[in-house]
Amino acid sequence: MAEKVRKSEEEWRKELSPRQYHILREKGTEPAFAGELNTNEKRGVYRCAACGEDLFSSDTKFDSGSGWPSFYLPISKENIVEKTDRSLFMTRTEVLCAKCGGHLGHVFDDGPDPTGLRYCVNSASLKFEETDKKKE
User: Fold this and answer.
1) Which listed residue (51, 97, 100, 120) is catalytic?
2) So what's the pLDDT on residue 134?
3) Domain span at residue 73?
4) Is 109 part of a structural domain of the chain?
5) For position 90, which CATH number holds?
6) Is 100 part of the annotated catalytic residue set?
7) Which residues does 17 contact at the CB level (< 8 Å), separation at least 6?
8) pLDDT at 9
């Protein structure tokens, strides 16, 4: 992982759209099935929308039916941070970008093999870079 990105909230507000800022910096979420990357079937890399860190590969993306892009494995465990989230009267595991601290979503233990994990990520917290045509 590269050096951590440290910016003031004012700098983040200038660089991110209001939706991205709300999700990445204020730990918001987008409505289910509203994110543009949920149904993306192109091959490529999903990067942090705030700092560009490589987070997930299309090779580990799957349709969870949840309404958010879902992955069973990050590109590197070093690129994400998992924290206990006790908001909304429940306990979940929050997923953040290790480089900039941006909120990505949550990870659950109801995913497919080989990990059994479902990284449920907001489209607005990601930037997609296509590498090939559609997944086979």
Assistant:
1) 120
2) 53
3) 9-130
4) yes
5) 2.170.150.20
6) no
7) 124
8) 93
